Amino acid sequence: MASKTIAVLWVTAVSLLALGAVLSCKDEDRLVADPSECSQPIQGRLAVKGICMNYVIEVLDPINPEWVEAEWVHPDTQVSYANAFKLGSVCTFDDSLNEGDLLYFEASPEPFEGDENCAVCLAYSPTPSKTLYLRLCQ
Description:
alpha+beta; 28% strand; five-stranded mixed barrel; globular
């Protein structure tokens, strides 16, 4: 009986911790408040909105070619995407965007503040091997 109580308490604690991590991703962190804060905005398109934030972004402006895959072919659909990468900013990205939506962002191969710790499901959806972290601009 005691082990059952401990298991219930453990599951409750883990659930509350995960909920706190999800709730810590605030809406105001998704966009840079002042567009002038984006020193070099890049235009892109949400190409694939995969399950569990497995998003593929296609870059439409010039970008460091080391940061993106020049051509990525989605293994399930055989659709080809130019200058594509996997979204790394799963904690702060605006999940209301839809496939095909244009967006302006700053990009980094390293996480921005707030991108490191949040709960995301682990379901798989194909993405490019290169990952970038984004800070959305207005």
